[in-house]
From TrEMBL:
InterPro entries: FabA_FabZ (IPR013114), FabZ (IPR010084), HotDog_dom_sf (IPR029069). GO terms for molecular function: (3R)-hydroxyacyl-[acyl-carrier-protein] dehydratase activity. CDD domains: FabZ. Involved in unsaturated fatty acids biosynthesis. Catalyzes the dehydration of short chain beta-hydroxyacyl-ACPs and long chain saturated and unsaturated beta-hydroxyacyl-ACPs. This is 3-hydroxyacyl-[acyl-carrier-protein] dehydratase FabZ.
Length: 154
């Protein structure tokens, strides 16, 4: 029997993670399979503030913001699975490993970020994830990262 996959729209995302404009970098998370896998969606638009300086005349999404968008996707996945809406969960990067960029991400692109939990379980503070971000099926970034989940005390 297959389990129903969950989706987090922008309203639920904002109830799980504290990020807000201009640093909220994921618009929707789909195909959430517990805390195992999920896919984040980021619609890249020209009105994002980093495009003013990165780069004038040739806007390219900075690689660090792609990695951050992947981390936000992972946080939403875990937060959804652990029912963290409205519970003030914070997540902190601990490391970013094996990060490689393969394609430019530009305004008009739809960035899809597929995340997998490598290590972590309910109650754990330290989690490790792997992810691939792509545009139109073409890999833009691949990475592994470790994060600390600062879960509120019940």
């Amino acid at each position: 029997m297959s389990e129903t996959l969950q989706t987090a729209d922008i309203h639920l995302i904002q109830r799980i993670i504290p990020h807000r404009y201009p640093f909220l970098l994921v618009d929707k998370v789909i195909d959430i399979d517990g805390y195992k896998t999920a896919t984040g969606i980021k619609n890249v638009t020209m009105n994002e503030p980093h495009f003013q300086g990165h780069f004038p005349g040739k806007p390219i999404m900075p690689g660090v913001t792609i990695a951050e968008a992947m981390a936000q996707t992972a946080a939403v996945m875990v937060g959804t699975a652990l029912d963290m809406a409205d519970k003030n969960m914070l997540v902190y990067f601990m490391s970013i490993d094996k990060c490689k960029f393969r394609r430019m991400v530009v305004p008009g692109d739809r960035l899809e970020m597929r995340l997998t939990t490598v290590r972590g379980k309910p109650g754990a503070k330290v989690w490790k994830f792997s992810g691939v971000a792509s545009v139109d099926g073409e890999m833009a970034c691949e990475t592994e990262f470790t994060a600390m989940m600062d879960l509120p005390k019940e």
